[in-house]
Design goal:
binds iron/sulfur cluster, 4-stranded parallel beta sheet, Rossmann fold, alpha/beta, 48% helix
């Protein structure tokens, strides 16, 4: 084995979305129904339990935004515009494969966008309680999850048994533990895993399940252990360390992460929904009430749409203690009010409590701010 062997040995080197697409196509050809999802709150265990496969529909390309702006306001989050534009143009390969779609009432833009796409696919919108620690919130969310289960059963003329859900919960837990173990390799100095590899692992794990996925993730843990034991470092010891938090990232907004690379720094953690966040939790197994167990775990996901979102602060404390970054970059997509306002608390936590440098970046999917971003990121790293 070479010191730094690619983690995936297939035809999709550097194309994690194509790998994910191939995974969904393979499952569909085997007879699985494809359920599109826009968010980490989608309880995918139900999709797996009916023998289906989830497809992630959030898009990060600037290309379809002009089309979206023919219908949607220009001052909307680019993630929503990009996802909607692809649907209008019929060029999102993931959406084209879906048999049904699930949405959650997270932010206003997404919630209202769902009303515009329901003509294309059977759609179930789950009403997500946004004060997760209030009395009755978990019970309410459990009702939404039960509604989603009924929707799947009716749409696909199937029955999702409690045993199948329990099995799917156990598989999710195993998968999530392994993804967490893989991301924890970022803690080593020098690091033995790149952000591109973390992103590849997260993208793969979102649409993959079962024994084959567990075996692949175990193989990746073994490869990273080999790197660690044999000095297969992916960054210089002197490289400044960066943790990325905030909105989901991908496609054209990876420009920010690439600029960090260009400055000679190394990204040691991806904390958002396209990184560790969807995998950093476990569902209680064998509780006798699997829907309740799913409801409890999903309401613990620390998205800025929640208030209070104390889970995100606790999570950042843990991540900073583990990864020891020199700089935390809080990446906010333009017009994402929840993450933008929450940045005030995140900055205070990171600077004052965790004594770590902090940079908030508000950006979209265009290339127009590249020069300005390069200067700001370079200066923040210099001061870290
Ligand atoms: S950031 Fe929030 S709304 Fe967006 S995918 Fe994650 S959990 Fe869902
Ligand atoms: S980035 Fe913010 S505004 Fe955009 S879809 Fe996610 S939560 Fe909504």
């Amino acid at each position: 084995m070479n010191l730094i062997t690619p983690l995936f040995h297939d035809d999709f080197a550097d194309f994690p979305l194509k790998r994910a697409l191939a995974q969904v196509v393979k499952k569909r050809e085997q007879g699985a129904k494809v359920v599109g999802a826009y968010c980490s709150y989608a309880p995918v265990e139900l999709v797996w339990a009916m023998g289906g496969v989830p497809a992630v529909l959030c898009a990060f390309s600037n290309a379809p935004i002009a089309k979206a702006e023919e219908t949607l306001p220009a001052n909307l989050c680019p993630l929503i515009k990009s996802s909607f534009g692809f649907i209008e143009l019929k060029t999102c390969p993931f959406f084209e494969l879906t048999d049904a779609v699930v949405g959650e009432t997270t932010c206003d833009g997404k919630k209202k966008m769902f009303e515009l796409i329901e003509k294309h696919r059977p759609l179930y919108v789950m009403d997500l309680p946004q004060c997760p620690t209030n009395e009755g919130a978990v019970e309410y969310w459990k009702h939404s999850i039960a509604g989603f289960k009924k929707f799947l059963e009716k749409s696909f003329d199937t029955t999702i048994t409690g045993d199948a859900i329990e099995l799917s919960i156990a598989e999710s837990n195993r998968k999530n533990s392994l993804v967490e173990e893989i991301f924890a390799f970022g803690a080593h100095r020098p690091s033995v895993i790149t952000w591109q590899e973390m992103y590849e692992v997260a993208t793969y794990a979102m649409v993959s399940g079962g024994g084959e996925t567990v075996a692949k993730l175990e193989e990746i843990v073994a490869m990273l252990t080999f790197r660690l034991e044999n000095g297969g470092y992916t960054a210089k010891e002197s490289a400044k360390r960066v943790l990325i938090t905030g909105c989901p990232v991908g496609g054209d907004v990876l420009k920010v992460l690439k600029l960090v690379d260009e400055e000679g720094a190394t990204i040691v953690g991806l904390d958002s929904c396209t990184g560790l966040k969807p995998f950093a939790g476990r569902i209680e197994e064998g509780s006798g009430d699997p829907l309740q167990a799913i409801a409890k775990r999903y309401l613990e996901i620390p998205c800025a749409c929640m208030t209070p979102n104390t889970g995100r602060m606790e999570n950042l404390r843990r991540q900073v203690a583990l990864l020891k970054p020199d700089l935390v970059i809080d990446l906010v997509l333009q017009s994402c009010h929840t993450y933008n306002v929450e940045a005030v608390k995140v900055e205070s936590l990171v600077r004052n409590d965790l004594a770590t440098n902090y940079l908030k970046v508000v950006t979209d999917f265009s290339a127009q701010d590249l020069g300005q971003l390069k200067t700001r990121i370079g200066a923040a790293l210099e001061m870290s």
